[in-house]
What we know:
The chain is α/β, with parallel strands linked by helices. The protein folds into two domains: 132 residues, Aspartate Aminotransferase, domain 1, CATH 3.90.1150; 237 residues, Aspartate Aminotransferase, domain 2, CATH 3.40.640. The strands form three sheets. It has a seven-stranded mixed beta sheet with strand order 2-8-7-6-5-3-4, sandwiched between helices. Strands 9-10-13-12 form a four-stranded antiparallel beta sheet. Helix 3 runs parallel beside helix 10. The longest helix has 21 residues. The relative contact order is 0.16. It binds pyridoxal-5'-phosphate (PLP).
Amino acid sequence: MEYIYLDNGASTRIDPQVLNVMIPYFEEIYGVASSQFSHQPGIKARDALEEARNTIASGIGAKPEELIFTSGGTESNNFALKGMALTTNRGHLIVSKVEHRSVLYSARTLESMGFKVDYLDVDSYGQIDMDKLKDLVTKNTLLVSIQHSNHEIGTLQPIEEIVKIARERGAFVHTDAAYSFGWLPIDVERLGVDLLTITGHKIHGPKGIGGLYDRKGTPIKKWIDGGFNEFDKRGGTENIPGAVGMARAFELMTDTEIERVRSLRDYLKKKVLSIPSSHLNGHPEKRHPANLNVTFDYIEGESVVLHLDMRNIGVITGSACFSRSLEPSHILMATGVSHEHAHGSIRFSLGRFNKREELDYVYEELKKVIENLRKLSPINKEE
Length: 383
Ligand SMILES: *Cc1c(COP(=O)(O)O)cnc(C)c1O
C-alpha cells in the first residue's frame, strides 16, 4: 500500500497542476524585473509576478499593492512583529500562548530588547480570553498578534472582535493566517486586520513562498534591507516561480474541494472518536476543515506515531519525546490539559490527495495499535 500521509498541516504534496505552471519560470522566463524598463524576459517575469499578486490579493479582499511576497509564513510573522517594532514609540505587544513559534519567538526576541509582551491565555478549546484582552490593551499597545486558525488543534479565533477591541485603543492587529489561507474564507476588509500572514505550501503549493498583507497606511518598516523589491518593503530577488505556483494553488482551493476534504475529516473524526477513551482536542465546531486532533488515554503519542509509520501512516503527536524542545506541545498545555493528556495526543491533518479507503485503513490500524499499546501500558487504569 502507498504511504498514507496525514501530516498536511506541516506541509503538502505539490499539485501537478501547480508544478506545471511553475516550470516555465525556471526554464524559459527566468529573468527578473527589478527595473521598470527592463529587458523582455524581465518584463514577462514581472507581468507573471503581478498577475500572481492580483490573483491572491483579490482572493483575500486586498489591493495588489497591499500584498508583499515573502519566503513563507515564518518570514511574514517575523516581518509583522519586528517590522512594526521598528516603527513607533509604543512599547507593548500582545500575542496568544498558542501562536506558532515564529510569532512566539519573535515576541520573545522583542521582549529581550525591552518590549513589554503579554502572552494571552486561552480556554480549553484554545480560544483566547476576550476579557483578558480587553484588560491588557492600553494606549501603549503597538500590536496585537493572534492567529486565524491553529495549526495543531485547528481552533479558530474571533478576529473581528479582537480587531474591535484593539482599535479602541489605537493598537494595530496582525493575524497569522498561514494555516487558514485557501482553506477558510479570508476577507481583510471584513476582518479589519492591518497585517495578515499567508503561505503557499499548506495548500499543495510550493514551499518557500508566502506573503504579508499590509493594509495601506500601516506604519510597518522594511526589515530585510536590499533592493527596492516589493514596493520597497522587502529586499531580495523575487521568487517568481513560487509566486506563480502559490497563485495557482490558491485558485485550486475551490469550495467543493474544501468541502470534500472537510467531509473526509468528519468521516475520520467519527471513526477515531469511536475508539474508547478518546477525546477531541480543539473546538468542536470552530475549527479548520482539514484538522483533527485527538488524545487517547493511557498511551504515549510517540509510540502510536512509530507504530503507525511502520504501517505506512504518517501522523504527528504533541508528546514531549517527539519534540526537540523536550516539552509537550505548548499549544495543548495552554488549553489547560495535563502532561499525560498532551502525551497521548495525535494530530491527523488531511489534504487533497487523501482518499476515503485510506481513512478506513487508518482507523483499523489505529484501533489495533492503541489496543496493543494499552495492553502493555503501565498507566492503563482500566486494567
Ligand atoms: C505553517 C505555519 C507557519 C509557518 O509557515 P512557513 O511557510 O512554513 O514558514 C506559521 N504559522 C502557522 C499557523 C502555520 O501553520
